[in-house]
Each structure stands twice: as C-alpha cells, then as structure tokens.
Amino acid sequence: DKCFKKSSDVLNIKYFWHPDSGFRDAVRNRGASLSAKSAEALIFLDSDIIVKGDWLSSYDELRKKYPDVIICGRYDFLKPMKIFPQ
C-alpha cells in the first residue's frame, strides 16, 4: 500500500484491493476489463507475492522493449520463515 501511495502521483498508478471472498478471479477479471479501456498496462499481484525492490522498473523496461507481448513471472517456493522469534 505505502509504495503505491507514494508513487501514484508520479507514475499514474491505480491500486485496487479487495477482500478474498472466494471469487478472486472473477473480481480481478472484472477490474481488468474496466481498467483495460484506459490503462497502458495491467499488473496483477496476489497478497502472497514477494517482489524485488526494482520489479516495477524492470517490468517497465521489458514492456517498452517488447510492447506486443504479455509478460509473465515465475515463482519460487521459499523456505519457511519465522516472523516472530518464538
């Protein structure tokens, strides 16, 4: 949230959040269809996604270099992490 709020004025980013009500794909697709009419690009992230610090600029470089392609990421399974010392 904080990252997008700080960047939204400079980068013209719109951030949408919705609670998971079991219809995540339907809600996401509905939002995409509404946004696609005016958006230059659409990026989907789920709450369990951990991105690198430069992910947005990397995406933007690829999008400009290859304007007619869909960019998809890959995933890695992380080792379990302890958030609290207990």
TrEMBL record:
InterPro entries: Nucleotide-diphossugar_trans. Gene3D superfamilies: Spore Coat Polysaccharide Biosynthesis Protein SpsA, Chain A (3.90.550.10). This is Glycosyltransferase 2-like domain-containing protein.
